[in-house]
Amino acid sequence: MPSLVFIRPHSGFSVHRFINFNVKSFLRGAGYSVYLLVSVVVLAEIGLRFYYSDPDYYWEHRYLYVTPDTYQNIDDKLWVYGPSRSMRDVAVYGFLDGGFRISYDCASPVNNIGLLQSRDFHSGDAVFGIIGDSYTAGHGGCPWFSQLEAAYPNQSFLNGGLMGTGIGAWRELIPYLQDKGIKLENILIIAISNDFLRPGWIWKDDQLACVNEAQGCDDEYWYPISPQASAEDLINLSKERALRRHGSRTAWDQVWQWVQRVSYIEKLLRRTGLFDFETEDSRVVVPTIIPEARETLEEIQKLGVPFHVMMVPQRDEVGLRQKNPTSRQVEALLGDLGIGFNWCEITGGDYMRYDGHPNAQGYAKIVACVSDLIDNHTMEAAP
């Protein structure tokens, strides 16, 4: 009869010890994996910050202020600044998960025809006209035009920079100047690619009622301020506006907003479409420059004066280190019309921290680019 054999467990074996050993091994492995993941993310963030600059705009966190009677509509497509006055222009940026700070606070003289410079113009004056948007007006890093005037005291420059305008408004600006009897001997356009998407526009009645009379102000618009308003007043008012604009957002919205602001990985993945949850039908199509762009450029050519276009890369182009599709359309249009153009290269460090405008250093580079055009006689070539 076969004998029964009993196998005794090894005297050192313990189920609890076995489980504890495997749990500890798993935790060590998981901890090591998390460590590697965090290290990769941190190193990627550091590397991206060395190569790229922040391409994002933070318009929804910007709170704008201006002295009353700063804007004046001319017709249904053109406005100018309130003539013969001093304008104070302030932007505060603030985040509910962070602090509020004044991004810029600029004082600008406005001349007798509603342009941002101290020099007045009268019928019969012959000028070197420089036309553009807020980059020419000097928003952000504050007006730079006086630097150019000081560098060329014998030249009569005209600052045709109007904030937020584009090719559609500039088409109306030239006849406005001609109606004043001003003769444009040279025309330099300083532009960003978005300018060729913008038709002419004017201030709405409710916007003017807000900035001029503090009535019916919408949080999306400028707010009126006195020239003596303190920084504390502006910060406190901006906090109130931020609560009205963003106070209903959930905690998750606030967290995700913070991630979008600080993470360069998120910024780049968003632009690859990996964070794009829109349907195919709702995706944004690359915009096409407006028909008025070609028409305006052709009309300027017909004036028969030296004409040049200087392009400045936008914040998103500088941040991503590549031209956007609209810029390439503009280059093609200028080439097709035979209009001389160049690029004034500025970098991420030449932009405000959050704002889409250059800082003082960036505007100094724009002054240098304009000076190069003048010194190299680029503007002497007939179109």
Itemize the secondary structure elements and their pairings.
Elements: H1 15-51, E1 62-66, E2 71-73, E3 79-81, E4 85-94, E5 100-110, E6 126-132, H2 134-137, H3 145-151, E7 157-161, H4 167-179, E8 183-191, H5 205-213, E9 223-224, H6 231-246, H7 251-262, H8 264-272, H9 291-302, E10 307-311, H10 315-320, H11 325-337, E11 340-343, H12 360-375
Parallel strand pairs: 1-9, 6-7, 6-8, 8-10, 10-11
Antiparallel strand pairs: 1-4, 2-3, 4-5
Helix pairs in contact: 3-12, 4-9
Write a short abstract of this structure.
Helix content is 40%, strand content 17%. It is an alpha/beta fold and 383 residues long.
Give the helix proportion (percent range). Answer: 40-55%
General form: globular
Task: Report Rg.
Answer: 29 Å
Number of domains: 2
Briefly note the structural class of the backbone. Answer: alpha/beta
Task: Indicate the low-confidence ranges by residue numbers.
Answer: 277-282
| Straight-line N-to-C gap | 116 Å
Largest sheet: 5 strands, parallel
Strand order of the largest sheet: 7-6-8-10-11
Task: Count the DSSP helices.
Answer: 12
The average pLDDT is 89
Percentage beta strand: 15-25%
Order of helices and strands: HEEEEEEHHEHEHEHHHHEHHEH
Strand elements, count: 11
